[in-house]
Amino acid sequence: MHITQLNRECLLHLFSFLDKNSRKNLAKTCHKLLEVFQDPLLWSLLNFHSPVELKKDNFLLGSALKHLSICWYSERVKVCNIEDWMKNSFQKDYCKRHENTVSDFLLDICNRCPNLLSLTLSGCGHVTDDCILQLLKKCPNLKSLKLENCVQITDHTLEAVTLHGASLQTLHVDFCRNVTQAGLERVREKCPSVMLRAERSANMIPDSKPEKKLMLEKASRKLVQL
Prior knowledge:
This protein is an alpha/beta fold and 226 residues long. Helices cover 42% and strands 11% of the residues. It holds the Pfam family F-box-like.
């Protein structure tokens, strides 16, 4: 029996075991398999390991998407997570190439995937509070929001959770250095049912203007001299 002789349900099941690239390559072989590739039911779960993957055409976005993960683990994450005023020209140029990639993709998710249940972001240094706010508004069924090492996330995201995260059950903001203890306490107070995790976040040094950091460094040196 040829694979194309299988019914649609069987083909969808077979496709579900393949990664995005394999699905795309198989879809190129015939029109019937292309139709299976384009079936929204196949795309309820998406995992990305690099912002570059977000620009490929080997997946489909739609209302069937329930679980999304964008986790970027590499040395390049460290470059994006450095404060802008500390970056050299090479680092700034490197970050400029993809600074809107994840945010633009998430805004697309807001418009096309209203049934999203879980979102995991890790190492996405350019994601902003406004982006998460829009996502909370447009995806009212979101139950799990995990933001690890997303350095631009601040207490504004925590406030957005208290206002628009009615369905939220899990919130992780680990290693988000611009989240404060006051913001975390506000979430615990207003959303007691949310399982909140914020490893090291409120204990890390937050971003600040160069002038302020220079003053802190001078003050530190004086204390050492004393």
